[in-house]
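Hi R.,

Here's the input for the S-adenosyl-L-homocysteine complex you asked about:
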Amino acid sequence: MSALGDQIKAALAANGAITVERFMQLALADPQYGYYMTRDPFGTNGDFTTAPEISQMFGELIGLWAAEVWTSIGRPNPVRLIELGPGRGTLMSDALRAARIVPEFRAALDVTLIETSPPLAQMQYDALLTAGAPIAWKATFAEAPEGPAIVIGNEFLDALPVRQFERCGGDWRERVVRLDSAGELAFGVADKPEPYLNAEADEGAVIEVSGVAHRFMFELAARLARQGGAALFLDYGRSVTGVGDTLQALRAHRQVGPLTDPGDCDLTAHVDFAAMARSARAAGAAVHGPIDQGDFLRALGIDVRARALAERSPERAKEFEAARRRLVGKSENEMGALFKAMTVANRAVPAPPGFQPSPAKPA
Ligand code: SAH
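And here is the predicted structure with S-adenosyl-L-homocysteine in place:
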């Protein structure tokens, strides 16, 4: 068992159970042993790969998306470009490079990276040293400077902890982590039901609610409604709120049980985009999407970009085509349909690139 696992077991032996939400928070963000606090989780030697790590095209297209949004909101100067959970800094680095073709946008940019992990903040610093834009780091979104903003979050929302409730004998009970009779970590349910939940579901069904994500979304949407701008979220998730336990852990690109070695495996839950959209609208913002990541990237021109890169470096043509397929393809091992894109924006912002109704297809 991981060091954090032993620590959690000792706490459970003394105090009983903790909620799934608390477990997820400890596993990812415990200051000493939390998964993101101690390592670089990405790439072939890590535990999982994200879209910006698959191809430069992803960050480039998002950089151009940001430049177009900036134009559509009246070219504010300065404009805050804020990235949530920037990982290795790859997306921002590719985005800033691509945005050079709109020099006025580049000149107006003031970049803030929201990151809780010290080792990842260091990697971002190294990756962006020569990016040529003013960049500041903050631990929370609330600390980002005020004003019109363009916000990007790729695989950020899925790292926020969820609460789970299980249908038991006609009641809903919060799911917890406890010790089983052998002293191992196990799922259980709270002793008391949650009387305010009255959805119908089959015995054993699980529903998930991320209070942390809802509070964040409300704060973000209220800010965009007051100060202008738009936020783009891309994540593994669902477009319709439904029943189901989506907690999943990954180690070395393989799925493992969610209670395996806390702090040593990535732990995520699918993003409930419909729920996020409800919070964003309730806070006064408009919502565009969610749409499939594949459709979004194609509308932004990924096919043309992949061909241009292949023409410039023919020896890498296969690599560009494989990356393009992985990002937009809609089969099981590809990201195009599993991942969704959604924009939350000030109501005055026109439908951003990728979310506009598509022109009629030629016959
Ligand atoms: N966007 C990157 C990384 C995704 S992984 C990419 O696509 O490659 C999740 C990122 O969010 C990591 O950088 C992690 O350290 C950060 N993170 C997780 N929880 C966070 C929180 N509550 N506040 C800020 N950053 C967080």
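One thing worth noting: The longest strand covers residues 229-238.

Cheers,
M.
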